Amino acid sequence: MKVNLIAAFAAILFWTFSGAMAQDSGELTIPFSDPGKRGKVKIDIKKGSIEVRGTDRRDVLVRYSAMDKSRNGNGNTNQDGLRRISSGAMDLEASERNNFIEIESDSWNKGVNLVVEVPAGVDLDLATYNSGDIRIFDIKGEIVADNYNGAISAENISGSLVADSYNGTIKATFSEVTPDTPMAFTTYNGHVDLTLPASFKASMKMNTKQGDILSGFDFAVKKTEPVTKTEKQSSTYKVYLDDWVRGDINGGGPEVMIKNYNGNIYLRKN
Length: 270
Fold this sequence. Notes:
Blueprint: H1 2-20, E1 25-31, E2 40-45, E3 50-55, E4 59-66, E5 78-79, E6 82-83, E7 93-97, E8 100-105, E9 112-119, E10 123-128, E11 134-137, E12 142-149, E13 152-167, E14 170-177, E15 183-189, E16 192-196, E17 202-210, E18 213-215, E19 220-221, E20 226-230, E21 237-241, E22 245-249, E23 255-262, E24 265-269
Parallel strand pairs: 2-8, 2-10, 3-9, 3-11, 10-12, 11-13, 12-13, 13-14, 13-15, 14-16, 15-23, 16-24, 17-23, 18-24
Antiparallel strand pairs: 1-4, 4-9, 5-6, 7-8, 17-22, 19-22, 20-21
């Protein structure tokens, strides 16, 4: 009977959320099935921005608004003297199962901007691809963030972060870092700018092709050793230098990998 009730609730939730999408903006509250346990929120949209804020609430509040480049300052459009009444339904879906909330938009044409309030202790998995940034505030959990064309920023986070952006700077400020947890930061065009607690311990592995590495921490650089490799097909023996900069902070710890091509790497002490 419990399974049937949950399934019925999921169906009602999906119908309510889908029906609201005919509007250009609105909000929806999504409950966790067990608010007393740790939850996870996954947001995956093809076009638009994502902002997530940690709060003391026990559910998830989603505020959504359509991206509309033709809209003027008073919220209307003037195309050939015509006033916009509706721009069509947004492609946005939400579901919850076993304390896992998933919010998705598969449209590459009609974008959506999301502002989401979550319990501060949730884990996050966030992704957007075009026309928007990812912004995260006050989260105490594990965070994965992917943005193809846009920046990723995280402020006052306590936990861990894995961030990947092709065109955009990655900037994060940690109040605490989960011990013994590897992290990774990768971007092609943009800086990687991290502010970390003074007690932060890690074994760093960093690489920037066209930029500098700047650190507020005492950084013990490890000597780069030549790497040898034999190609099986041609039996060619090769020796090359590893171009990663490696070193320990505060005696070392879990590996933190940072890589970019066009941009600097900043390690700031909080």
